[in-house]
Design a protein that fits this description.
The protein is mainly alpha-helical. The chain has helices at about 5-40, 45-60, 65-80, 85-95, 105-115, 120-135, 135-155, 155-165, 170-185, 190-205.
Length: about 210
């Protein structure tokens, strides 16, 4: 028996509407769950927030809020002082979500976690990577302070030279590193060497090429 198209079309339209409505309701529930967990984080209940964000990441990998949950999972673990777990989850995030607009925040938190583990060179490199990917002036300001302080107080000349080669061609990152290095040398009384580093950095500016 052949089924009339005049009967099928309204049915298909109804099924499509039901499917879309179900998806919208599911997305709304995901949003509500995320916002409740975010409130726990803001209230300082990092342990419960961490558990809840981890549950969503594990059980709802296709969620529209998956990257938001990953970010807040990393942040919660960092706040709890579980720096190894924060590093592990941040690395998973960075490998999974190459186009996420949260990458700068994850890189920044990853750098902070490495700093807490006394991995100062790794921390500085990650902060500069975050700066490279970010359009947030507030984050840029935090990174500039952190890089300057870490270069001045925690890194030696060999560490800084190695960082310069690892950063690659990111001009702003190299300039920030060189300025911090020059400030360190000035503070140590190495004025001539500081001037040399700063002058070399300035010659690399596009306007001076």
């Amino acid at each position: 028996m052949r089924i009339s198209l005049s009967f099928l079309l309204p049915l298909l339209c109804l099924l499509s509407i039901i499917s879309a409505s179900a998806a919208q309701n599911f997305s709304a529930r995901e949003k509500s769950i995320f916002e409740k967990n975010l409130e726990l984080y803001r209230e300082g209940d990092y342990k419960q927030a961490e558990q809840n964000f981890a549950l969503v990441v594990a059980k709802l990998p296709e969620s529209a809020y998956i990257t938001s949950n990953y970010l807040m999972l990393v942040k919660s673990q960092y706040k709890l002082g579980d720096y190894v777990s924060a590093i592990d989850q941040a690395k998973i995030f960075l490998s999974k979500f190459s186009n996420s607009h949260y990458r700068d925040d994850v890189l920044y938190t990853l750098g902070n976690a490495y700093y807490k583990l006394n991995r100062f060179q790794s921390a500085t490199k990650l902060w500069i990577s975050a700066l490279d990917e970010s359009n947030d002036p507030r984050l840029a300001g935090k990174i500039e302070v952190l890089v300057t302080g870490t270069v001045r107080d925690m890194l030696n000349d060999e560490d800084i030279k190695k960082l310069s080669t690892e950063i690659g061609t990111y001009a702003d990152g190299l300039m920030l590193l060189d300025i911090a290095w020059a400030e360190k040398l000035y503070a140590e009384g190495s004025i001539t060497k500081g001037n040399s580093i700063l002058n070399a950095a300035l010659t690399e500016l596009p306007a001076n090429k």
